[in-house]
């Protein structure tokens, strides 16, 4: 089977939006190469387990690569992808040159394309993301391994938005918490939560491809099971009360999620969210406040923000 590889040459601030555009256009798997990933990992204090210089990587800007199966007529959708990338400026994102390049690849090239880009990476004090084909043993007693297949992943843990949420989970989970993961993508946040000691975890994504990806990654991490996962649009039709809701999605999509999150949290429950580029921070902050949340903490890596907000406890008499 022949695949078509579509690469968008862009800037770091636009990678999440470009990934969404490619995914929404029918791609099977999205790979992000972001020069800022290597910059921030080297400065985090945990570092890259394989030296950054030994891993092929960009020194500036970013590239988002997606693979389209044979049944997608790529020449027809390329102009639409290009138009949507160009329109990102209207949303306050800089796509850079925004050049869209398509080339055919065969199965073997598609399968091996991922492997040269991913090495084990220590993301937080306790969490290390490990590509599933690499044999790796924990280096410290408390180190927990998240095994992923980046070839199917929608977030491998190394992008700042995912890193921020992994850090927030490590800060907030004490053990036994119930959690909903909105826009789960690769399932990395749900897997991490379970490894950190969370109790019942539900994960949802609008895209069935993402749901299937998360299911495969959960199988690679049997110690994280069980995780309930399914296709759903944000929290539409979900009416429950949990301790934590986590969402690593675009800021524009966080806005309609905020009131849903407030409804589905227990009093004292926390809403952890990222995917917030700097110029969208005030929008999300104010939306949280307007819907009754108290912002307890903000996290930042470069131009990306994460927010930890709490649903207040009822006033005591």
TrEMBL record:
Under InterPro entries, the record lists: Ribosomal_L11_MeTrfase_PrmA (IPR050078), Ribosomal_PrmA_MeTrfase (IPR004498), SAM-dependent_MTases_sf (IPR029063)
Q: Which UniProt keywords apply?
A: Cytoplasm, Methyltransferase, Ribonucleoprotein, Ribosomal protein, S-adenosyl-L-methionine, Transferase
**One Pfam entry name:** PrmA
Which EC numbers characterise this protein's activity in its record? Answer: 2.1.1.-
Look up the record and give one Gene Ontology term from the biological process aspect.
methylation
- GO cellular-component term (any): cytoplasm
For molecular function, the Gene Ontology terms on record are: protein-lysine N-methyltransferase activity
Q: Which family does it belong to?
A: Belongs to the methyltransferase superfamily. PrmA family.
Q: What is this protein called?
A: Ribosomal protein L11 methyltransferase
Species this protein is from: Paucilactobacillus oligofermentans DSM 15707 = LMG 22743
Taxonomic lineage per UniProt? Bacteria, Bacillati, Bacillota, Bacilli, Lactobacillales
């Amino acid at each position: 089977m022949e695949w078509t590889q579509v690469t968008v040459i862009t800037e770091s601030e636009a990678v999440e939006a470009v990934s969404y555009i490619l995914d929404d256009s029918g791609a099977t798997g999205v790979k992000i190469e972001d020069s800022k990933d290597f910059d921030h990992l080297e400065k985090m204090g945990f570092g890259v387990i394989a030296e950054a210089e030994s891993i092929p990587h960009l020194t500036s800007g970013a590239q988002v690569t997606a693979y389209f199966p044979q049944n997608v007529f790529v020449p027809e959708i390329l102009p639409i992808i290009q138009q949507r990338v160009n329109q990102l400026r209207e949303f306050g994102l800089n796509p850079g040159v925004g050049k869209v390049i398509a080339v055919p690849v065969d199965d073997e090239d598609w399968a091996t394309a991922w492997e040269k880009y991913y090495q084990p990476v220590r993301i937080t004090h306790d969490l290390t993301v490990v590509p599933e084909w690499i044999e790796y043993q924990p280096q410290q007693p408390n180190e927990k391994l998240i095994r992923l297949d980046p070839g199917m992943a929608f977030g491998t843990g190394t992008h700042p938005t995912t890193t921020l949420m992994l850090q927030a989970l490590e800060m907030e989970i004490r053990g036994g918490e119930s959690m909903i993961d909105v826009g789960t993508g690769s399932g990395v946040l749900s897997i991490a939560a379970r490894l950190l000691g969370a109790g019942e975890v539900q994960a949802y994504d609008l895209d069935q491809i993402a749901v299937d990806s998360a299911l495969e990654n959960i199988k690679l991490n049997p110690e994280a099971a069980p995780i309930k996962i399914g296709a759903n649009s944000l929290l539409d039709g979900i009416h429950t009360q949990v301790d934590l809701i986590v969402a690593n999605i675009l800021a524009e999509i966080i806005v309609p999620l905020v009131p849903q999150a407030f409804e589905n949290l227990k009093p004292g429950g926390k809403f952890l969210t990222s995917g917030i580029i700097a110029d969208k921070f005030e929008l999300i902050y104010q939306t949280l406040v307007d819907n009754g949340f108290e912002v307890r903490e903000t996290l930042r890596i470069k131009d990306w923000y994460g927010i930890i907000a709490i649903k207040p406890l009822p006033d005591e008499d």
